Amino acid sequence: MSASEHVDGQPGRGRASQAVAGYLAAAAIFAGLTALVYYPARIGPAAIVTALLAAGMGGSIRRFAGLAMAVAAGGFFFGMIIAVFLDRPIF
């Protein structure tokens, strides 16, 4: 068995956590883009927390988690701007 198969002494744990982190990052990107058009004050913070969880799980998807964080924060910020200018509900 190689060193990449063992994380913290448990075989296979690294791959599973990276897969979960990838799905969390993808969900954060989707939620960040959704926050642009639908209740940014509800969805935006949840997208940011999800992206932070994905980044915390780390592994080889660090750049993807960083992209998820940028999209989630941008979706929250620009969603709030769009909601204010178009007089749409924020919550």
Write a structural description.
It is a single chain. A two-stranded antiparallel sheet has the order 1-2. The chain is 70% helix and 4% strand. It has helices at 13-34, 40-57, 62-85, and strands at residues 6-7, 10-11. The protein is elongated, with a radius of gyration of 16 Å. It has three helices and two strands. Helix 1 (13-34) packs antiparallel against helix 2 and helix 1 (13-34) runs parallel beside helix 3 (62-85). It has one domain (21-85). With 91 residues, it is mostly helical. 31% of the residues are buried.
Task: Return the structural class.
Answer: mainly alpha
Q: What topology, given as strand order, has the largest sheet? A: 1-2
Average per-residue pLDDT, rounded, comes to: 88
How much β-strand is present in the residues?
under 5%
Question: Summed up, what is this model?
Answer:
The protein has 91 residues and is mainly α.
